[in-house]
Structure formats: structure tokens, C-alpha cells
Amino acid sequence: MPRSHLLDVSPLRANPAYARMWSGQAIGGIGGQLTIVAVGLHIYELTRSTLAVALVGVIALGPTVLAGLYGGALADALDRRRLAILAASVAWASTGTIAVLAWLGAEQVGTLYVLTAITAAASTVLSATSAAITPRLLPRELLPAASALGGISSGIAITVGPAIAGVLVAAVGYAWTYSLDVVLFVAAFTGIVTLPALAPDPSASRPGLRSVTDGLRFLTRAPNIRMNFLVDIVAMVFGQPRVLFPALAALVLGGGPVTVGLLTASFAAGALLSGLFSGRLGEVRAHGRAIGFAVEAYGAAILGFGLVVAFSMLLGGNVGSHGEPASTLPLVLAGLLLAAAGAADNVSAVYRSTMLQAAVPDVYRGRLQGVFIVVVTGGPRIGDLYVGLTASLGLLWLPPVAGGVLILVLVALLVARSRSFRSYDSLAPQP
């Protein structure tokens, strides 16, 4: 019987432990977004500085990278259930401390920086460990569906969490918002605590610098996984126009903060919709080619978005006398193209995650998941720098147009040069 185009929920039926873990991650992810948004608003209220808000991510980047690399080594050397419980406990305690300080009125910018960095590092270890757990709970043929389910939970969290956070901060304040995250995190704990014991591979090395470097050396003899990371880096560095949204809303498309919200939501909505209609993705065996096509589609959508901006600027902008959009057409086109980019990115993520889980031996899986998180975390930040430097030339259309072209060209060249990536077969996965 042909599969439905709708989301395949077979993994949730196949293993109750996985279903509990996924549900906990979905609910806990919404809480995590509450705190991320609330901390940004909180720091801006305390400092009135956009730079101070930007430093939240900058300060957390170092601990996140270290946690991804070393946390992955821990996930390969220790019982993954116990490590997940430990990482979740640290993240929960850090968020709880933020909530307590907010209730006492004792919060300070420096304290928020430190606690947010601790939460980010612990969450990175938890994410790497949870991703390494999934292949131990599900058969290989259900991994694409599990990756799609992971995209759904992330999409819901990113879409719902920030919206709820803005309403809660305005209505009841920061303390209640942080406290709700603490409560929602109980669901994540429940999903982890009820997992079976997940002892490490007997051949696993002890965690440490040697274990980390051994995991990195594995990439030198894993051309498919290496290409997996490379095409994602290209897409994230050259195809992240998000820092342009405020300037575009003020100077080109009109609408101010409302337009910024619409553009941001468009990308998330595209990813979420593609996840809801991902049921047939599991039928594709050529995951390498599928990743290449999806990233090329992503680059084309970003290029199209840049062309919409360029034509709007060529026609004198789309900003009315009071800052409102003079026409809805450019804004609609921009939103549709960003939705297409979000959908393509989600399809790419499904196959990249599946390849990583299926092709990497279990003894290396935690470390490679850690590297994957470092790539996913660091790529967009480098992309923000690329966009900022390019946009400083005064041409707001240049970053997405040039970035889209670079993605199309570079990804085509990379995939063309890797025969093993093009011939990758999900029924016989090779790293």
C-alpha cells in the first residue's frame, strides 16, 4: 500500500519509550523558547541595548561548542539515559535559578548571561545524547519518520514558544514566564527517566581530549557524513537573511515589527508544513541526492527572496507615508519564498539527520551528533556576520542574492565531486 503524504507517526506507535521521549522534548522545547525570548526581552529592559541582547548568543557560543564536542564523547562512553538525566537536571536547575532571581527581583545582566550559557551547554549535551538514543530505540527504516517528527516538535516550539512568551511577559511578567518553563520541563524529565538503560558500546573509549579527536578523525574516513556537514555549512553561512528583516521592514517592505514577525513566521511555517506532509520522505533511498536537491531548492528560494527585495528597492521601496506597506504583493512574495526555504531546509534536515543516525556506528554516534550540533549552531552565526558585512555596503538585496547564487554553485560542485554521496543508499548506509 502506498504511504500517505501526511506525517508518518509510526515511530510513536513502534516504541512507547521513544513516544514518551519525543512528547517530552516537544513540550519542553516550548518552555525552552519561553526562556530564550524572555531573557532577550529582560536584558533589553535592563540595558536598553541591542548589543547587550546580541551578546547572549555570543557568550553562549563557546560553551555550546565545547559541550557539543565533549558532550558527544560522554554520550559514547556513558549510559545515555543517565547522561540525559544529568544534562536535563543541570538545564532545569539553571532555568529554575533564573526564575527564583526574577521572583526576588535580584536578576542582573551578568547573572543572566552566565545562567543562559549554562543552560545552552546543558541543552546541547541533552540534544546530542537524545539524538544518539533514537537509533537504539527504533529500527533503521523508521529513522526518516523520526527525523520528520523531530522537525515537527522543533517547529512547534519555535512557532508557539515565542508567541506565548511575548504575551506572558506583557501580561504577567518575567518571573511567571520563567516559572512556566520550569513546569513544562517536567515533561522532558518524564520522557527521559522512563527510558530503558542504554549502556555504552563495550569498545567505547573513555571521554576526554583523545576521544574527541578520535571522533573528529572519524570524519576523515567518512566522506558521506563529511559532505553532509559541508552542504549544511554552505546553506547556513550564505542563506540566513534573518538579520536583514528589521532593516527591510523599515526601509523596503514596510510594516515595521509586524513585517519582521511575518517574515520570521513564514520560514517556520514552511518548515512546519513540510513536516506535516512528510509521509512519503521515507520512501526515498538516495539520501545524498535528496540532500543536494533540497539544499539547491533552499538556495533558489533565498535567491528569489533577494530578487524580490532588489526589485522593491529598484521601484523605490514599498513603504507608505506612515511606514505601512504600500502594496501587499512584495511582502506576500517574500513570505512565500521564505516559506519555501523553510520547507526545503526541513526536508534537508530530515535526510541529514537520518544519514547521521543510520550510517555512523553507535560507538561514534554521540560524538558525531555533537559535531552536528556545533555545525548547526555555528553556521547561522557565521551567516549573520556574512550578511551584516555585506549589507554594510548599503545594498540590502546583495546578501540573499549573492548567497543564493553561491549556494546553488557550491552545492552543485560539492555533490558532483562526491560519487559516494550521490550513490548513497539508505538500505545500505555507509558513512
UniProtKB/TrEMBL annotation:
<feature type="transmembrane region" description="Helical">
    <location>
        <begin position="258"/>
        <end position="278"/>
    </location>
</feature>
<feature type="transmembrane region" description="Helical">
    <location>
        <begin position="50"/>
        <end position="71"/>
    </location>
</feature>
<feature type="transmembrane region" description="Helical">
    <location>
        <begin position="182"/>
        <end position="200"/>
    </location>
</feature>
<feature type="transmembrane region" description="Helical">
    <location>
        <begin position="395"/>
        <end position="416"/>
    </location>
</feature>
<feature type="domain" description="Major facilitator superfamily (MFS) profile">
    <location>
        <begin position="180"/>
        <end position="431"/>
    </location>
</feature>
<dbReference type="InterPro" id="IPR020846">
    <property type="entry name" value="MFS_dom"/>
</dbReference>
<protein>
    <submittedName>
        <fullName>MFS transporter</fullName>
    </submittedName>
</protein>
<feature type="transmembrane region" description="Helical">
    <location>
        <begin position="21"/>
        <end position="44"/>
    </location>
</feature>
<feature type="transmembrane region" description="Helical">
    <location>
        <begin position="112"/>
        <end position="133"/>
    </location>
</feature>
<keyword id="KW-1133">Transmembrane helix</keyword>
<keyword id="KW-1003">Cell membrane</keyword>
<feature type="transmembrane region" description="Helical">
    <location>
        <begin position="290"/>
        <end position="315"/>
    </location>
</feature>
<dbReference type="InterPro" id="IPR010290">
    <property type="entry name" value="TM_effector"/>
</dbReference>
<feature type="transmembrane region" description="Helical">
    <location>
        <begin position="327"/>
        <end position="347"/>
    </location>
</feature>
<feature type="transmembrane region" description="Helical">
    <location>
        <begin position="368"/>
        <end position="389"/>
    </location>
</feature>
<keyword id="KW-0813">Transport</keyword>
<keyword id="KW-0472">Membrane</keyword>
<dbReference type="InterPro" id="IPR036259">
    <property type="entry name" value="MFS_trans_sf"/>
</dbReference>
<dbReference type="Pfam" id="PF05977">
    <property type="entry name" value="MFS_3"/>
</dbReference>
<feature type="transmembrane region" description="Helical">
    <location>
        <begin position="145"/>
        <end position="176"/>
    </location>
</feature>
<feature type="transmembrane region" description="Helical">
    <location>
        <begin position="83"/>
        <end position="106"/>
    </location>
</feature>
<keyword id="KW-0812">Transmembrane</keyword>
